[in-house]
Amino acid sequence: MNIEPNITLSSAILLLGSVNSMLISFFLLFFQKSNVHTNRYLAFILLFLGMDLFHQFLIDSNYIYQLQPIIGFFMQFEVLFGPLLYLYIRGLTNPDVDPPDRKNMLHLIPVVLGIFLMIPFYILGFKEKLEFIQHGYNFGKLTGTVGITIPAYMIIGTLSFTLYLGFSIKLFFAHRKKIANYFSYREKITLDWLRNIFIVMVLYWLFMATYIALMGSAELNKQIIDALMLFTVVAVHYLGIKGLLQPKVYSRKKRTRSIRALLDTEHKPQPSATGPEKSTVKYIKSALSDEDSERIIKRLKSVLKEDKLYLDSCLTLPDLAEKISVSSNYLSQVINERLGMNFFDYINSHRIEIAKHLLLNPLPHTPTILDIAMESAFNSKSAFYTAFKKHTGLTPAQYKKKQSPIS
């Protein structure tokens, strides 16, 4: 039977989406410099989605008749979307605790099970498989073993995707909570764009759940699959672009600011009553004692006053902990419990004091609010306004207007 290929607008869109998806995946695998290990998971997501789109293009355009042996071959990779999404989110939010690759291999169990369940389908004839796919993957007419394994495969795939999506969302919210105790800034590290990814994935899940709920209706299933494929085209472009633009969350960029010199001349540090403490503070494994906490607080305030570390716009908790020779966990505990703030707010409170000084005593190179924000180690005007209002209850302009007569 000789069927002539017929490329329609919808099939052309599928082809475009598949080509772009695979190109982006190769770029992430071989040319992207940041997030190398993490991006490989996103790359494989895009690669498998691109292969799925290409497979659907072959079906819709009738080119599948020239490539009969590959029909249905890419279905087994769909169970990998959930595990790969989870590994990608984990890599972005917890790059310092990435387990060995051999442990990551455990997440391949669903695909191994999927291949096993797909065996009865693969031994079907070409016409049977084509009819199954063209009717919206409707297995109502499938008989024998394949009538059991195919529904089982789809249900297991949906359950696996549901669990991994839930795990991924949990990691995201844990990251949101963590960064306030780890970073002194939030620009480009909050991963807010992942919320849109989760919306995309939830919609993808709804397509899958709706398909299973309507598995007896061939016509509705076909419409759902068609809509899902077009939705996937949009999703792969969004995923790819965001993946390419996502910076490394734990990257550091040191900058020297002229305000350091100003503070060194106006507020020279006084020698400590006990002298400089350079030895590493040793702690027992149990909770910190009051004495240990006081020593850490004293050392913390001394270092911040002398070295002005808060003027490093990329300062992190480990940076500061290393400087004062304590563990990050102990330092975080002291800041939270003894000072009543998280690391983010504590460092920004020092930056706000600098900003308040510059608002009332501007330097030649800080004539505007943005200049003052940058000089105070804020990375954006919006971050400066938010922090200033939180710590003073006023906007910078209101504070300047209120304090100027007194000055």
Task: Walk me through the structure.
There is one protein chain. α7 (146-179) packs antiparallel against α8 (193-213). Residues 250-286 have low confidence and may be disordered. 64% of the residues lie in helices and 0% in strands. The chain is mostly helical. It has 17 helices and no strands. The protein folds into two domains: 9-245, Rhopdopsin 7-helix transmembrane proteins; 259-403, Orthogonal Bundle (Arc Repressor Mutant, subunit A), CATH 1.10.10.60.
At a glance:
The protein has 17 helices and no strands. It has helices at residues 9-30, 36-61, 81-93, 101-104, 109-122, 126-134, 146-179, 193-213, 218-245, 259-266, 290-307, 317-323, 328-337, 343-360, 369-375, 381-392, 396-403.
N-C termini distance: 91 Å
The helix-and-strand class reads: mainly alpha
CATH class of the largest domain: Mainly Alpha
Q: What level of helicity do the residues show? A: 55-70%
Please report which band the strand proportion falls in: under 5%, 5-15%, 15-25%, 25-35%, 35-45% or over 45%.
under 5%
| Whole-number tally of structural domains | 2
Kindly report the average pLDDT value. Answer: 78
Number of strands: 0
Looking at this structure, what is the CATH superfamily of the largest domain?
Answer: Rhodopsin 7-helix transmembrane proteins
- Return the CATH topology of the largest domain: Rhopdopsin 7-helix transmembrane proteins
Task: Please give the CATH architecture of the largest domain.
Answer: Up-down Bundle
Q: Enumerate how many helices there are, as a single number.
A: 17
Helix-strand sequence? HHHHHHHHHHHHHHHHH
Spans of at least 5 consecutive residues with low confidence: 250-286
Main sheet summary: none
